[in-house]
Write a structure and sequence with these properties.
six-stranded parallel sheet; 6 strands; Rossmann fold; about 180 residues; 7 helices; alpha/beta
Length: about 180
């Protein structure tokens, strides 16, 4: 697999406090995806592929990743936050609900950037990534959702979400290394 032209990398909800029921479990599973997500970020930067963080707003209602980072920083999240911190050239949007498209400027931004293909990464795979993938598919974007770049509380739920994205949304779901090594 190779990175297609007109691609954007979307990172969903990884600036996270993990301060909720089963947050410890999700934080543990999120640590497992950090390395392949970082590899995709590095490749995207090398190839001038837009990187778009779409994140919950944590009741700040500001698209200010520094403020959200500070609100989310705690013992459970610091290692994750420090490893995926956005850079100034990256885009950062906040979302009010599960899908990165709902109530955001994402669709407009993608069209402005002339993006046709999305690489989706992030958490929770069975909720926010799945709902984003569904909305992207309905907008006729092609999808690649590396199986080692999404995490959910339950491994079983994560696998089910990947199966749905593969079978229903026609997403490619190989590993991130298949993208990175094909450059």
């Amino acid at each position: 697999m190779s990175i297609k032209e007109n691609t954007a990398l979307i990172i969903i909800d990884m600036i996270n406090s993990f301060d909720f029921s089963n947050g410890d479990v999700l934080a543990k599973h999120t640590k497992d995806i950090i390395k392949p997500v970082k590899e995709l970020v590095s490749l995207s930067r090398d190839q001038n592929i837009p990187i778009i963080y779409v994140n919950d707003h944590y009741n700040l209602w500001k698209a200010d990743y520094k403020a959200i980072y500070m609100k989310c920083k705690n013992e459970k999240s610091t290692e994750i936050l420090e490893s995926i911190y956005p850079e100034t050239q990256d885009y950062f949007l906040i979302k009010p609900k599960h899908s990165a498209f709902f109530g955001t400027a994402l669709n407009t931004l993608l069209h402005q950037l002339q993006v046709k293909h999305l690489i989706l990464t992030g958490i929770a795979g069975n909720i926010c990534v799945l709902f984003t993938a569904n909305d992207a598919y309905m907008r006729e974007f092609t999808l690649h959702i590396p199986e080692d770049c999404i995490a959910s509380v339950s491994k079983q739920d994560n696998e089910y979400a990947l199966e749905m994205m593969r079978n229903v949304l026609k997403a490619e779901t190989g590993k991130a290394s298949e993208i990175v090594n094909s450059k």
